[in-house]
Each structure stands twice: as structure tokens, then as C-alpha cells.
Amino acid sequence: MRDPGADDFAAFVADSATDLARLARVLSSDPASAEDLLQSTLLRVWRSWPKVRAADHPPAYARRIMVNLATSGRRRRWRGEIPTERLPEPSVGDQQHAVADRDWLIRAVRGLPARQRAAIVLRYFVDLDDAAVADQLGCSVATVRSQISRALDHLRVTGSDPAATGGDHDRDHVHRA
């Protein structure tokens, strides 16, 4: 006998999986961890599906689960090197600086403490306002602003020293993330 909530859950996954996968890629240190984070999030959403379905905004509920998993799981995991089979080919053409800037920005955001990273990702990558970010993180708007301010200060300091980032030009424009 089929669970009546399964169809609703399948529709929810079809509608929000792309956005959740994008969020997981930014919150995670590598693509495999992002896939694991997405699967863990969807599993938790499924386990709580009656409560999630009854929520005012189920995608926001799922994002909060994902952020909580990412911030709590980050403390337990080793953050060392990630082995690869071969080095990527260098970028060519006019897009080289844009790719380098994006790569630098993603690495810099991943280097932030978990709460600051979550606040930055929800504010600038998911494009939520401060109140929505506060709701997702379960804290006050003032705390969100403080976390974002500290994160942006860190990114500006890191980005202003090209030798520290391996770049050849100033990346002080990270506030446009």
C-alpha cells in the first residue's frame, strides 16, 4: 500500500531539488559532500514530512535542515586535502579572471566558520533578506548582520592580499557575492 504523503513529497523534491542542490554545493567543501548533504537533508525532510508539509514554506524548512546539517557536520569532519585523479586544465580566454574570481570566492566562503558561511550563503547566494536568514539560522537579525559583517571583513582582508590568494589583482569587491 502506497503512503499518501509520498506523492506530495515526490512533487516537493521535483520542485526544490535544484535549489537545494545548489545550496548544498556552496555549503559543502566538495561535490561528493554536497551530494551527501542533499541526501541527508531530503532524508530528514522525508522523516518529518507531515510537519514539513504543514509548514508555511516547506522549502525554507528544508533549507534550515540543510544549514543545520552543514554547520553541525562541519565540526566533526576532517577538513584536509581532497585527492583528485588529475589537475584541472587552466582556464583560457577572457573568462580566466572571472573563473579565478569565482573559484577564489567559493574557496574563501568555504574557509569561513560554519555560522558565518551559512549567513553569507543564505544572504547572497540564496538571496534571502536578513529576517529570513535569521529565521533559517534560528537567531536574531542583529546576530545575522554581525555574522555577515564579520564574514565580509574576513573576505575583504583575505582578498586584499593577492599573494595570500594566489591571484594577481585586488578582489576587494566580494561584497557583490
Describe the structure.
With 177 residues, the chain is mostly helical. The protein has two domains: 8-75, Rna Polymerase Sigma Factor, Chain: A (Orthogonal Bundle), CATH 1.10.1740; 95-176, Winged helix-like DNA-binding domain superfamily/Winged helix DNA-binding domain (Arc Repressor Mutant, subunit A). 70% of the residues lie in helices and 0% in strands. α1 crosses α4 (58-76).
**How widely separated are the two ends?**
48 Å
Domain count: the total is 2
Please identify, by name, the CATH architecture of the largest domain: Orthogonal Bundle
The fraction of residues in strands falls at under 5%
Instruction: Return the CATH class of the largest domain.
Output: Mainly Alpha
Summed up, the helix count is 9
Rough outline: globular
Number of strands: 0
Averaged pLDDT, please?
81
The CATH H-level homologous superfamily of the largest domain: Winged helix-like DNA-binding domain superfamily/Winged helix DNA-binding domain
Give the biggest beta sheet: none
- The share of residues in helices is over 70%
CATH topology of the largest domain: Arc Repressor Mutant, subunit A
User: What string, H for helix and E for strand, traces the elements in order?
Assistant: HHHHHHHHH
| Estimated structural class | mainly alpha
Rg calculated over all Cα atoms: 18 Å
Quaternary structure of the protein: single chain
pLDDT < 50 runs, ≥5 residues: 161-177
In short:
This protein has 177 residues and is mainly α. Helices cover 70% and strands 0% of the residues.
Features:
177 residues; mainly alpha; Rna Polymerase Sigma Factor, Chain: A; Arc Repressor Mutant, subunit A; 0% strand; disordered C terminus
